[in-house]
């Protein structure tokens, strides 16, 4: 019988390593694809907060600086920061990246699988044409022979979406904050 549950064949990568790997892939998408186009910038967290406030979206219960990764302007410009923001606020498009190393054939994005938060969808709906999802493909095995990105509005994304499901992300209380939450027995 050996391993009837297939435990030995399961990946041993823990969630923290996987999350770290995802951040590395996202950073590569930003550095190696989007930021090579001078219209894109990766603002600091402080600048992101200022952008949201400037757009009237500073309620952190609804939207936060994690709801977008970059900004896009109509053309190359000086660095947008909290000082230069008023000059560019009306031109800024917020960009949320979804990055993969999977070989995606072309801009049709067939087979691209990604996760998104409700916050991202809500922000995209609120901003309309001032928000884009950037689907970044880091693999060069495609029609272009190099990494590429495709920008989509929420409406364009919804039109291309074959299926969508909700997934809950759950955090359990830690020992210090458990406040009487108990129960469960360890199976060893």
Describe the secondary structure blueprint for this structure.
Layout: H1 15-32, E1 40-41, H2 45-54, E2 70-72, H3 85-88, E3 93-100, H4 118-127, E4 131-137, E5 148-152, H5 154-160
Parallel strand pairs: 3-4
Antiparallel strand pairs: 1-2, 2-3, 4-5
Number of strands: 5
Question: Runs with pLDDT <50, length 5+?
Answer: 3-10
- Give the overall average pLDDT: 88
Oligomer: single chain
Gyration radius (Cα, Å) is 20 Å
Main sheet record:
5 strands, mixed
The H/E string reads: HEHEHEHEEH
Name the structural class. alpha+beta
For the termini, the CA-CA separation is 21 Å
Protein architecture, described:
By secondary structure, the protein is α+β, with helices and mostly antiparallel strands. The protein has one domain. The chain is 26% helix and 13% strand. It is built from five helices and five strands. It has a five-stranded mixed sheet with strand order 1-2-3-4-5. The longest helix has 18 residues. The N terminus is likely disordered.
């Amino acid at each position: 019988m050996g391993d009837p549950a297939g435990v030995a064949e399961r990946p041993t990568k823990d969630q923290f390593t996987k999350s770290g790997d995802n951040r590395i892939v996202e950073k590569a998408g930003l550095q190696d694809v989007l930021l090579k186009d001078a219209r894109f910038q990766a603002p600091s967290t402080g600048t992101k907060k200022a952008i949201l406030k400037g757009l009237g979206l500073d309620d952190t219960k609804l939207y936060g600086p994690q709801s977008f990764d970059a900004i896009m302007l109509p053309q190359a410009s000086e660095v947008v920061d909290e000082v230069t923001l008023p000059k560019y606020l009306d031109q800024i498009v917020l960009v949320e990246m979804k990055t993969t190393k999977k070989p995606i054939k072309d801009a049709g994005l067939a087979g691209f699988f990604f996760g998104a938060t409700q916050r991202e969808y809500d922000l995209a709906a609120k901003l309309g044409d001032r928000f884009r999802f950037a689907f970044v493909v880091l693999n060069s095995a495609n029609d272009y022979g190099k990494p590429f990105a495709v920008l989509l509005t929420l409406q364009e994304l919804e039109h291309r979406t074959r299926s969508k499901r909700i997934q809950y992300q759950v955090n359990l209380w830690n020992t210090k904050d458990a406040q009487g939450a108990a129960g469960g027995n360890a199976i060893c």
